[in-house]
Specification:
- There is one protein chain.
- The protein has 84 residues and is an all-alpha fold.
- The protein has one domain (2-73): Tetracycline Repressor, domain 2.
- Helix content is 77%, strand content 0%.
- It contains 5 helices and no strands.
- It has helices spanning 2-19, 26-33, 37-43, 47-73, 79-83.
- Helix 1 packs across helix 2 (26-33).
Length: 84
């Protein structure tokens, strides 16, 4: 089930990139993946839900990178410097 979700998501995002969001129909996505319309809607309530997931994944990725950067550049606070 997770694999099919990923296929639908990846295909939809690829089509959005090439055809645009408005230029992509759910029918286009299901034709590419080879599933029925009800199957698509079992995984995504709407076409917009694919974009919602894309936004959430993007924010998660940015947050992870920022946390890693902060961790990599963090240094112990010097007690003498802190007093200034």
């Amino acid at each position: 089930m997770q694999r099919l979700h990923g296929q639908l998501y990846d295909t939809a995002i690829d089509l959005f990139r090439t055809r645009g969001f408005e230029g992509t129909r759910v029918q286009d996505v299901i034709d590419e993946v080879g599933v029925s319309e009800p199957t698509f809607f079992n995984y995504f309530r709407t076409k917009e839900a694919v974009l919602d997931e894309f936004a959430a994944r993007t924010l998660d990725s940015i947050s992870e990178r920022l946390r890693a950067e902060m961790h990599d550049t963090a240094r112990p606070v010097d007690a003498k410097t802190e007093a200034c």
